[in-house]
Amino acid sequence: MNEYSIKKISGKAVYVGGNDIDTDRIIPARFMKCVTFEGLGQYAFYDVRFDEQGRSKHHVLDRPEHQGASILVVDQNFGCGSSREHAPQALAKFGFKAIIGGSFAEIFFGNCATMGIPCVTLEDGQRAQLVKSIQENPQAKLMLDLENLEIKIDETKFKVNLPTSIQQSFLSGKYDPLFELLEGQKQVNDVAKKLGYVD
Q: What is the mean pLDDT of residues 83-102?
């Protein structure tokens, strides 16, 4: 365990419904001209949140009761389509720290994991119950407990699923491969010295 370990995430939740929400809907391609990911949050779900003149369509993410929500609840096959890393980056910059869904596209799931954003799954009936709780009380605080793989909202608990290897990477703080590589700099240098073709 280290300072980057993630055991619990709590906050308000918001539900964005619909199966097969692809990465182009999460972050339209025309906003991917940036050099860094900073500022991408304002473009998350842009085309379903704003019309061509930039006027609000009063999407659920822009409703006052859901401002500050940090946990996103979605349906099936979320993050499908292009493998763009910009999609989880846009959601992170928007303020989301965890995603609860029916299922996730594999590359999107992996990109989120390396960024420290757990994507846990919850079966349909319980997810419908969770969504009902959120809609009835948008101010309710939801707690995602990665150690026990459960979420709690009000007094109700739901069991969620997450592959054990991913769960352990969050708990140990070793979810970012680049960080792992930099942390093992000495071992990298030791191996490099043994290789005849590395100066």
A: 95
Q: pLDDT at position 131, please? A: 97
95 dihedral zone (left: phi>0; alpha: psi -120 to 50; beta)? left
CB–CB of 115/30 below 8 Å? no
Nearest to 100 by CA among 176, 158, 178: 158
Put simply, whether the predicted model's pTM sits higher than 0.85 gets the answer yes
Of 115, 104, 152, give the one whose Cα is nearest residue 130: 152
* pLDDT band of 99, cuts 50, 70, 90: very high
Spatial distance between the Cα atoms of 90 and 44, rounded to a whole number of angstroms: 6
Tell me the per-residue pLDDT of 122-139, one tens digit each, with 9 for 90 and over: 999 999 999 999 999 999
121-125's contacts with Cβ under 8 Å and 24+ in sequence apart are 121/160, 121/161, 121/162, 122/151, 122/158, 122/159, 122/160, 122/161
In 3D space, the residue among 49, 52, 65, 48 whose CA is nearest the CA of residue 12 turns out to be 65
Residue 98 Rama label (left phi>0; alpha psi -120 to 50; beta) = beta
User: For 155, phi and psi rounded to 5 degrees?
Assistant: -110, 10
Q: Tell me, what's the pLDDT at 32?
A: 82
Q: Hey, is 152 helix, strand or coil? A: strand
Asked if residue 1 has pLDDT above 70, the reply is: no
